[in-house]
Amino acid sequence: MEIAMTALAEKRISNILEDHSGKLELYYNEKFQGSYACSITGVFELKVSDNISESCETLNSPLGPVYIDPTKVTHLDDDPLIDYQEKMNTLQLKGRSGMIVDNLRVVNNQSKSLY
């Protein structure tokens, strides 16, 4: 599977990676506390980490490999896309069915936002 990125998203993520070393993981945070519907048990985050599990699968991206837990791939549509909305200063994860995450956080190993 591949994960596409718009040029703006690619630039935004590259800028973050200049200040924080590690590999990219599309991490499904099941402990996320938000205002989502009851049936949603978690939310994707883009984690910058050196602690990638050996069981992770690799998604090809314009920035190189993006890792994902194989049990969480089912939460993605085919051909996922990361976009960047300049006005809102947010990354967004989209799929064929529409918006998956309207504010894709970029976090470190402790789930602290990196921007």
Automatic annotation (TrEMBL):
Domain of life: Bacteria
Residue ranges of domain Core in the record: 1-107
Protein name: Iron-sulfur cluster biosynthesis family protein
Organism: Marinilactibacillus psychrotolerans
